Amino acid sequence: MARTKDQEARRAQLSEAAGRALLSRGLEGLRLRDVAEQAGVTPAAVLYYYDDLDALMYETFQQAIERFCRDRESAAERHTDARERLRSCIASGVADGPHDQLPRLLFEYWPRTLRDPKAAALDSALTERQIGVYQGILVLGEAQGHFALTDTPRMIASNFVAMEDGYQMDVLAGRRTRREVITALHSYGRAAAGDRWEG
């Protein structure tokens, strides 16, 4: 059992190192040696735990998705009022700025999804999980009498996530501030869920 825990701890360490290396070099320039240097080990030591760099980066992307979604779900679930849930959900999904590491890591890896079906499946799971959070909030808000939805909960939720993704790139590139994006998403919320949701 101790050996299994040690291996899990080392894999977690390597995944964290892979994330740092990815943020530093970008996906296309990333080498196994970069990850090994970040972790303070040899490339051979990395390959003891992973078949290759692609396998390590896939697991790193998977773990980043889990952290991002779990944090967002927890932020929303702290509230019983759907209006507060929606505000919290919006705020938790927008990067703080160009150096916000978790969303940046997700976007640095994203180009792989255009060529790799496994990576694309993970990205789809990320999108669906976020849509699910929004959809649940919208259904709850309608039941609580706070929202007057102008379209189906699924469509509105999908639009929220699509807008976030587009705006998120602007925040990470330094073209928009977090506050500007939150304001824009609130504007869409008023159009899609009615003015009452911000009351």
Tell me what you see in this structure.
The protein is mainly α. It has two domains: 1-50, Homeodomain-like (Arc Repressor Mutant, subunit A), CATH 1.10.10.60; 61-198, Tetracycline Repressor, domain 2 (Orthogonal Bundle). The chain contains nine helices and no strands. It has helices at 2-25, 32-39, 43-49, 53-77, 82-92, 101-109, 117-143, 153-172, 178-193. α4 crosses α6 (101-109).
Highlighted features:
mainly alpha; 199 residues; Arc Repressor Mutant, subunit A; 9 helices; Tetracycline Repressor, domain 2
List the helices and strands and how they pair.
Layout: H1 2-25, H2 32-39, H3 43-49, H4 53-77, H5 82-92, H6 101-109, H7 117-143, H8 153-172, H9 178-193
Helix pairs in contact: 1-2, 1-4, 4-5, 4-6, 4-7, 5-7, 7-8, 8-9
Order of helices and strands: HHHHHHHHH
Helical region count? 9
- CATH architecture field of the largest domain: Orthogonal Bundle
- CATH-level-4 superfamily name of the largest domain: Tetracycline Repressor, domain 2
Q: What fold name goes in the CATH topology slot of the largest domain?
A: Tetracycline Repressor, domain 2
Largest sheet: none
Silhouette: elongated
Mind telling me the CATH class of the largest domain?
A: Mainly Alpha
- SS elements, strand count: 0
Q: Nearest-angstrom radius of gyration? A: 19 Å
Strand content: under 5%
- Could you tell me the mean pLDDT? 91
Helix-residue proportion: over 70%
Summarize the structure.
This protein is an all-alpha fold.
